[in-house]
Predict the structure.
Amino acid sequence: MRFGILGLGRAGSAFVRPILSHPGTTITAAADLRPDTRERFAQDVPAELYASPEELCSSASVDVVYVATPTEFHTEHVLLAMQHGKHVLVAKPMATTLRDAEVMLEAAERAGVTLVEAHPQSMDPPVLGMRSIVERGELGRLRMIHNWQYGAWLYQPRTPEELDTALGGGATFRQGAHQFDILRLIGGGLVRSVRAMTGAWDPERPTEGAHVAFLDFEDGTVATAVFNGYDHFHSSELTFGIGQGGSVEDHAEYAASRRARQASDAGKDAELKKLRGYGQEESRPRERATRHQPFYGLTIVSCEDGDIRQSADGLIVYGKVAKIDAPLPASRTGRDGVLDELYGAVVHGEPAIHDGEWSTATLELTLAVLESGRTRAEVFLKHQVPLKRDVSALLSGQGRAELATESAAEPT
């Protein structure tokens, strides 16, 4: 599949290496408004380069458009790509309203193309491993899922739209979407209702920086999503010092992001954000020096006969009679998983987990958390869908984990 990447900021840049490394995908085009960014990209990737979305979407050299532009442009750019008969991978959140998501679904059906939302965090091997154990029933019926993420999200460099909830900004839209997708995937997808609190506690960053959400699934499973981006406690202190991407986080200087933000001049965010464009120090694709499993916060899964959490290199399964370490492949990332499901859907007609219907359901949950935070009331959901395929087969090396968890689950 020939990819055209629309937008070479951090989201677009993060998929460059995975696309070039995948045996079934390559990059043939990219578009970005910034000439210097296009020049840096050209040094690494021999591809067509454009300054406008229209030029990229009309290219005969592109099969799939990865829409990695700011969220407020997603609907416009997704529809533009589909009008030219392109399949679409869209960055999260896919839209800011359910109506926009429905318009995307209708356009994909008319054009006969595939729409997939990029949710690499829920495609990380540990999350797939947890779901695999749940769906095999090795620890009995699923009862609870919890994800707690504390960090510095609010005080990292942010563009104005990232701090405007109406444009898809704020921690609940930007980061809650990861949490809610992880919880839905492990839980099977069908959330009945949500009761939530959202917090905007810094007038200089006037958007949601924290939330707590209680999810009630149709089958009686419950889940919590806790997020705090105010750069005090970091949940990596509970996850072996490992954070997103599998890298070890440096806690030597307390609240470094918050303190740097408070000491910076007004407008400094825009300058710092440029460092996350393609080819800059923070975005150029490179291999991790140390490979651990990525932690999107602390996730704990509770079944009737045991609990599951991550280790640095896989899962820890607390069964009836034993605690077992179940290793997972270190070479796989969530972005590899996203490309696998997109490739399988386009080339082989396999059901994608994060298709348009699933992604609309995650968006519905995100919007419901925001609504519940405003109204302090339980919100019931109407557009939830179940997983369309078993996850076990998607996880490379899952046989080793299966043997280990069976040993933990069965009494001697």
